[in-house]
Design brief:
alpha/beta; seven-stranded parallel β-sheet; 48% helix
């Protein structure tokens, strides 16, 4: 009798899990997702993961490279997110194309690694203009629509540099830390409005921000962009639950930080 009861309970539990997953996948398939910096590195890897799982994938980059041209549900727009005029133009084009943004993935970023005294102010300005102000420009452009629709996801690709001190990394870390503080504050402001603010903090990932000698020295110590892209897709799926949301996720190489 106990065995039969357990079998029935197991079947009911499996049915509930299947129904929940099915509901989430249906939600995924209805989403319009905008990703910045989606033509290389983590952005491209994330775009590839999402391309077959969402309704529309909108890729924004400064170069406007049609890198996934075999996908019919992908739209490309050229914009420099550090320029408010470009962001405003992008928003207006999406409105004209009848594309409502459900998910904003702020991935575009830049980096350099130098000692404090070797850093030039123009380099520091570039870091903040893209990593911080560029992301703020995008959030300010698309958050009001999400609040109005009572649904939205904003996923910020941050960095473990905002959590841990690394030498020769003061200004990159500062730009990411500034975003981290704003994101945490914004999360509290929009609770109950149907919008989730999600921060992803990758550790060392093999990308263009590292020079070839560093990558060669660290073979096997870095994650791949594909690892992060897969994680972002899974995180987005988790956030579609009716009962929970992943808010701060740290991703590190198996052997730890460099």
């Amino acid at each position: 009798m106990l065995l039969i009861c357990n079998q029935v309970t197991f079947k009911i539990l499996n049915l509930k899990i299947f129904n929940c997953q099915d509901k989430i996948m249906k939600k995924m398939n209805e989403l319009n997702v905008l990703i910045t910096g989606g033509t290389k590195g983590i952005g491209l890897a994330t775009a590839k993961e999402l391309a077959t799982n969402v309704s529309k994938l909108i890729i924004c980059s400064r170069n406007n490279i049609n890198i996934l041209n075999n996908k019919k549900n992908i739209n490309y727009y050229k914009a420099d997110i550090s320029q408010i005029e470009d962001v405003t133009s992008l928003k207006n084009k999406l409105i004209n194309d009848n594309l409502q943004i459900d998910v904003l993935i702020n991935n575009a970023g830049t980096a350099y690694f130098k000692p404090f005294l070797e850093s030039e102010i123009n380099e520091v300005n570039k870091l903040f203009n893209i990593n911080f102000f560029g992301t703020i420009n995008m959030i300010q452009a698309f958050l009001p629509g999400m609040i109005n629709n009572k649904f939205g996801k904003i996923i910020n690709i941050n960095s473990v540099s905002s959590k841990k001190i690394f030498q020769n990394n003061a200004f990159y870390a500062a730009s990411k830390s500034a975003l981290d503080v704003v994101s945490k504050t914004l999360r509290q402001e929009v609770r109950g409005k149907g919008v989730d603010i999600i921060d992803v903090y990758p550790g060392a990932t093999e990308s263009d921000m590292w020079d070839s000698s560093t990558k060669n020295e660290r073979v096997g110590r870095m994650m791949f962009p594909e690892d992060i892209g897969f994680a972002v897709k899974e995180i987005l799926e988790l956030s579609l639950s009716d009962r929970m949301v992943p808010e701060e996720i740290i991703l590190r190489p198996k052997l730890g930080d460099l």
